[in-house]
Design goal:
The chain has 16 helices and 15 strands. The chain has about 500 residues and is of the alpha/beta class. The radius of gyration is 25 Å and the shape is globular. The N and C termini lie far apart (about 60 Å). About 40% of the residues are buried. The structure holds zinc ion.
Length: about 500
């Protein structure tokens, strides 16, 4: 297996270092959301990270097939094959069909991704739509001798696999350490060894999502869907598999073991993991009450937030850090990202109005080349942003009449900003100004009403939400719920 687990320095435009496995197409698989709740920052970061990679590979001229799955079955409350299915639990508590829960949160996820200007993937397969393929995959692993059946469930035999191959290759963990950190099994367990993981689970009578299989009426193990759907849409081998660092172990480690067991070789060439997000220095977790969902960021409707933050501010803030570094969210950090983005927007707007001098008064560095070098260096977006700020200083000086720029200079700066800021970093112009503090008082008042309405909607207080919309309509405002959030204008 390739030891290079990062695409470090390998996205070169010369295409000498990065050669797709399949002629004419880069295959890219990213673990998508388990859709049983609203999208939060933990969803935004991988979506934005791999959106940058998707945009850049296409910009370099590759045809990319980008698969991002939807987990709608088999993700149990406790990742180690225990507890209730997360979606089934939500369905039970809210008296809904499980697929109703999935559709509801998937619609909201798509809405949030659109707001963040994350491009949709090429294929978005659902785990529940690939049960037959998953059963076939389990059969292959059984046939190869790396799994066993126990009381209607099928488990992957980690020790047997480790004896022939090596388990832990991605995370650098070894099986002895893992064993000493794992609780021993009680006599009731169906597993031979605590490290074994489920490929198929026999459904308990109260479990509402289940399918027939050769072993039992049951459902697939969580790790299985990604191996199966990656293979179905990208082939036995593909180039890139991504996801959050929290998925590296055990999820991705198990995926590798499954594909080696079923296919005889690893499926993935490069693994990429975005690092985690903390909030005010703390990990995100239920017990910390700091799961701020994206809608709450956009509306400013969470007690930890001082104000609303536009989707582009969130995107820009995430891109100011390298994807392999942690990012700490705080009001102060977001407000400084907001200011920085506003500065860049101002320069971008000035650039559109610059008129050329006959002769250039400065010799400009090749900013575009510098930005390409930064992107080629493992998607170094903070470095790209630093170069763009250097270019902004030149634009501002020209706009103030301190230096003169030729038509060619202006053209190259426009091309730089359009390529890197708009197309590759994916910053949508205009949106972030809404929360930049330059609004007239009545606009701020209407925005305040929009925030109250968003809170009412979040609390399912439809009466208040409709009242605000209707009264604003009577007063001559046009309020629309669009894909990008609420938009209003004066009729
Ligand atoms: Zn996955």
């Amino acid at each position: 297996m390739e030891s290079n687990l990062l695409i470090y320095n390998s996205l070169s435009r010369t295409k000498e270092l990065f050669k797709p496995l399949h002629e004419g197409m880069v295959g890219m698989y990213v673990c998508g959301p388990t859709v049983y709740g609203d999208a939060h920052l933990g969803h935004a970061r991988p979506a934005i990270t791999f959106d940058i990679l998707y945009r850049y590979l296409q910009h370099l001229g590759y045809k990319v097939r980008y698969v991002r799955n939807i987990t709608d079955v088999g993700h149990l409350e406790h990742d180690a094959d225990e507890g209730e299915d997360k979606i089934a639990k939500k369905a039970r508590l809210e008296h809904l069909e499980p697929m109703e829960v999935v559709q509801h949160y998937l619609n909201r996820y798509h809405h949030d991704m659109e707001a963040l200007n994350v491009l949709p993937p090429s294929i978005e397969p659902h785990a529940s739509g690939h049960i037959i393929e998953q059963i076939e995959y389990v059969k292959k692993i059984l046939d190869a001798g790396y799994a066993y059946e126990s009381k209607g469930s099928v488990y992957f035999d980690v020790k047997k696999y480790n004896a022939d191959h090596k388990y832990g290759i991605l995370s650098g963990r070894n099986i002895e350490d893992l064993e000493s950190n794992t609780r021993t099994l009680d006599g009731q367990s169906e597993k031979r060894d605590p490290l074994d993981f489920a490929l198929w689970k026999c459904a308990a009578p109260e479990h509402i999502m289940h399918w027939p299989s050769p072993w039992s009426e049951g459902f697939p193990g969580w790790h299985l869907e990604c191996s199966t759907m990656g293979r179905k849409y990208l082939g036995d081998t593909f180039d890139i598999h991504g996801g959050g660092l929290d998925l590296l172990f055990p999820h991705h480690e198990c995926e590798i073991a499954q594909s080696v067991a079923a296919q005889g070789h690893p499926a993935v060439r490069y693994w990429m993991h975005n690092n985690m997000i903390t909030i005010n220095g703390q990990k995100m977790g239920k017990s910390y009450k700091n799961f701020i969902n994206l809608e709450e960021f956009f509306a400013g409707s969470h007690p930890l937030l001082d104000k609303a933050y536009a989707p582009m501010v969130i995107r820009f803030f995430i891109l100011q850090a390298h994807y392999r570094s942690t990012v700490d969210f705080s009001n102060a950090a977001l407000q400084s990202a907001e200011k920085a983005l506003q500065k860049m927007t101002d320069s971008y707007n000035r650039l559109q109005n610059l008129s050329p001098a006959e002769k250039s008064g400065v010799e400009l560095p090749d900013y575009k080349e510098l930005c390409y070098e930064a992107m080629d260096d493992d998607l170094n977006t903070p470095q790209v942003i630093a170069h763009l700020f250097d270019a902004c200083r030149v634009i501002n000086s020209a706009s103030n009449g301190e230096i003169s720029l030729s038509a060619a200079d202006i053209e190259s700066l426009r091309s730089l900003m359009d390529t890197f800021l708009i197309d590759l970093l994916g910053i949508r112009m205009g949106q972030q100004q809404e929360s930049a503090g330059s609004l007239k008082p009545y606009e701020e008042a209407v925005n305040l009403l929009m925030e109250v309405r968003a809170k009412a909607k979040a609390a399912k207080d439809w009466a208040t939400s409709d009242l605000i919309r209707d009264r604003l309509a009577q007063a001559g405002f046009d309020v629309k719920d669009t894909k990008n959030g609420v938009e209003w204008s004066v009729k």
